[in-house]
């Protein structure tokens, strides 16, 4: 505080510069932490130190050799991650999540095995206690976390490498070959069962399957029992039942723990799972409720775009639930000035008739920025905000741009009559009529961008036919390609063909014509309306 007043005094005397040094903004600091090499090195070093602590903790034979083996496997994991998952390797938060889950996985196993060695599970028989501890091991912990949060490829990666590390770290406590096989199979089953987790109950189902797999493998490897076929009546069936319960229960308990931790992990690492997308699809969200009252046309438009985008995403294997939810919110910026958008206008004069084309374009373009502001205010997911920013890309507000060119041409023709100089005619700059972007960065954003344009354009068709829809959709996609709006998303030409076919099928079913039934007056033999009057629709 004293330094502030001293500096202010020096500035008044002209002995100090009034400007302050520019400091890094919070976004720059976060960006540095997310992609900087120092933070990445800290994550890697932390995992290596954790592995060293697990190996050197209990005076195992040849700990240095085991540590070097684990280090070589770690370098192999990094190489595979860099080659197969470069986007994950580039983001330090993802690396922290991944290697943190690996370390927690191995630490839980270490704690259980130490407790089993000390006789915590069977005080009278330490060998039996260690055997029960082996059945308690959460083989599917890291694969389940990675599969649900980052996808199946990351789940397979996790199952492979935690199994390799575990077989070395716990070499003197479990049979490494049996451990490796049980860990790999349990992890792969966990990934297979969680390919699409749309409800939390699916996690419990995955835990049941993992538990059954663990029980079968333990039975095959003799970790349950021993079972003596020649002396079945005299066997300890109570102990066998307890061991079987432990084997199955370990998978279920692991899944329950992960289900409880998912909301925390999603919040910490800014990840939206399929479960969260379904929860976000609730139409009772305050913004959507506002839209039904203040901008009903935009609300209906968003619902149709959601149907189009979801069907198209399913056709090409993209995230259909994400497309539906993001489509609900992609036009929330229109809530600020709903009457300036066609779908919300009444039958009276358009408000754009009294505005210059540049001002009209400014209002239209501003709905993207205003949508981002509303999304931040209501704390929507970052992925939804990205779609709001990207769904128009850097495309041109074509109607008002052409209107501005027409007005410019009219002014030029009038200027020849009135002897007005060419320099006095207002210039029309194309940049003033383009959205600020960025262009769509993902398949889902690209699909929503095309669905938004297709739905709006389809409303201009007087009579909907398959041929007209084909021509309309193909023209929209072709214009987007020529304008280079799809250059930064992963949509291939084959994907675009499938998307076009999906749009055509969905729109044709939505916009099909209805049979015009005769009125009740005609049925009673009363005079018919004039021939040019609109028919009474069945709707």
Describe the overall structure.
The structure is a single chain. The protein has 539 residues and is mostly helical. The relative contact order is 0.05. The protein is built from 23 helices and no strands. It starts with a helix and ends in a 16-residue tail after the last helix. It has helices spanning 2-12, 26-35, 37-56, 63-84, 86-90, 92-117, 126-136, 141-150, 152-169, 176-193, 200-220, 237-269, 274-280, 286-294, 296-316, 320-329, 357-377, 382-390, 398-418, 443-458, 466-482, 493-510, 520-523.
- How many DSSP helices? 23
Helix content: 55-70%
Low-confidence stretches: 21-26, 529-539
Distance between the termini: 73 Å
Mean pLDDT: 85
Shape assignment: elongated
Radius of gyration: 32 Å
Proportion of strand residues: under 5%
Helix and strand succession? HHHHHHHHHHHHHHHHHHHHHHH
What is the count of structural domains?
2
Which helices and strands occur, and which strands form pairs?
Blueprint: H1 2-12, H2 26-35, H3 37-56, H4 63-84, H5 86-90, H6 92-117, H7 126-136, H8 141-150, H9 152-169, H10 176-193, H11 200-220, H12 237-269, H13 274-280, H14 286-294, H15 296-316, H16 320-329, H17 357-377, H18 382-390, H19 398-418, H20 443-458, H21 466-482, H22 493-510, H23 520-523
Helix pairs in contact: 2-3, 3-4, 3-6, 4-9, 6-7, 6-8, 6-9, 8-9, 8-10, 8-12, 9-10, 10-11, 11-12, 14-15, 15-16, 15-20, 15-22, 16-18, 16-20, 17-18, 17-19, 20-21, 21-22
